[in-house]
Amino acid sequence: MGSASSMLTQYDIEEVQEHCNHLFTQQEIVSLYKRFCQLDRNAKGFISADEFLSVPEFAMNPLSQRLLKMVDGLNFKDFVAFLSAFSAKATVPQKIEIIFKVYDSDCNGKVTFNDLNEVLHDLTGSFMSEKQRKEVLSQLLHEAGYTKESSLLLHDFIKIMEHSGLKMEVEIPED
Amino acid sequence: MNKLNTSSSELDLDRPNIEDYLPSGSIQEPHGTLRLRDLLDISPTLTEAAGAIVDDSFTRCFKSNPPEPWNWNIYLFPLWCLGVVVRYGLLFPSRVLVLTIGWIIFLSCYFPVHFLLKGHDKLRKKLERGLVELICSFFVGSWTGVVKYHGPRPSIRPKQIFVANHTSMIDFIVLEQMTAFAVIMQKHPGWVGLLQSTILESLGCIWFNRSESKDREIVARKLREHVHGADNNPLLVFPEGTCVNNHYTVMFKKGAFELGCTVCPIAIKYNKIFVDAFWNSRKQSFTTHLLQLMTSWAVVCDVWYLEPQNLKPGETPIEFAERVRDIISVRAGLKKVPWDGYLKYSRPSPKHRERKQQSFAESVLRRLEER
């Protein structure tokens, strides 16, 4: 399946399904493959950052740079695994886990105050000052029982967001 | 909806609010006291990004949708093979012959007319128009074009401009065989560029260069001059600015709609029964595209000349452009998308991201104050 073929065999589909913990149906994987081939212009086997950014809706997103680091250069199997967190079948902890990964840009399993600040900066741009951002974060962290020096781990994230009615789903078109 | 304080750069005034069209159901106004989980919860933004990765309306506009293959079983496949032999062995050579004859006739009449009748401009122009219409008919014949024209034929009057949806450069040829329009086009390299600078120049065509931003003012001025001239050929504009796959329309640029003259919409819809006429300039050169058309059975399309429209009182040029786009899209059965066609060549303006950032920042600050 790797690089240039544009046909998926049944074995390929099952392999990908295994890799994403059966969070997508086989039909969805076929549709995702069509999309992958559409974005991967010269059939290299992965989608480059430039090709992701050629989707204007993605390029306009405030978190596009962070997400690019996570999806740039992924092959199809990993691409599907990445998107599986957005499947309707994914559990809330699985969704929280991908949110954690977006924050934890150096992938060391800990989200520091600085990481929180940087993501908030991406989301608010120049419309909140550095001082305001740090103040809001400190205040809210304190109220939740953490401090500026605490590093949040995945289970902290799960504890904080578990019952917030997290809805993060994407529909794969049939087409 | 937050109205951004934009600096009035032309690029931004060029389009209405994209947010009005994009699915924004995921961004709901949050309620209640601001908590840590509200800041940590980046799910709306992530959902939008993932949604865009999985499917987006912009890429759909430029996807080639070839017709379904019908040669898939034991009876149809030999028939298809026979068809291939006929198309490549019989039709293609005779079409090339017809086209060559057409070019010979055209060139042998055009240059004498152009140079010898230098003094008699009115007659010269009339003959040149007729000759261009002739060569376009030869082109259309070379793909066995079956074109059905609906509606009153364009008339040569001042203060009017024709706009049409754009699928391929052959749109121009299909329309030109009926009426010798002056068209505004991107200057191309190669043999097309040569044709542009010699023959099309005499029709009064106007060239632009997408990559030069200052170009727009010069072109706007030339448009205005042309349209107000009494015996210039009627001007044809493709406001989308790029080729779209004939299932969607992208946003119309307002240039043609702010000249203070009547806009006559033309809708073109190709029937994909024998070949898909969409010129996917990312995938093939124009020559390859033409060859593909010349080796297919026929190019079938419908052209509708629609009712001329004028700027309504209180309507801005952008609203006018959108209204005309609506008329054309409905007639040709195309879906509208809120994207600027030029995003094919460049990244979106940072203003869109800033709008989202401003909206989020204001929401956080407001909820902070409410505590």
Automatic annotation (TrEMBL), chain A:
Classification via Gene3D superfamilies: EF-hand
Residue ranges occupied by any EF-hand domain in the UniProt entry: 27-62, 91-126
SUPFAM superfamilies: EF-hand (SSF47473)
InterPro entries assigned to the protein according to its UniProt record, in alphabetical order: EF-hand-dom_pair, EF_Hand_1_Ca_BS, EF_hand_dom
Record keywords: Calcium
Cited PANTHER family: CALCINEURIN B SUBUNIT (PROTEIN PHOSPHATASE 2B REGULATORY SUBUNIT)-LIKE PROTEIN (PTHR46971:SF1)
Protein name, per record: EF-hand domain-containing protein
From TrEMBL, chain B:
Protein family according to the UniProt entry: Belongs to the 1-acyl-sn-glycerol-3-phosphate acyltransferase family.
Name of the protein described by the UniProt record: Phospholipid/glycerol acyltransferase domain-containing protein
Residue stretches spanning the membrane: 72-90, 96-117
Keyword list, A-Z: Acyltransferase, Lipid biosynthesis, Lipid metabolism, Membrane, Phospholipid biosynthesis, Phospholipid metabolism, Transferase, Transmembrane, Transmembrane helix
Organism: Rehmannia glutinosa (Chinese foxglove)
Pathway listed: Lipid metabolism
Stretches assigned to the Phospholipid/glycerol acyltransferase domain: 160-271
Keyword match Repeat: no
Phylogenetic classification of the source organism: Eukaryota, Viridiplantae, Streptophyta, Embryophyta, Tracheophyta
Pfam families: Acyltransferase (PF01553)
InterPro entries per UniProt: LPCAT1-like, Plipid/glycerol_acylTrfase
Signal peptide residues on this chain, from the entry's feature table: none
Places the protein is found: Membrane
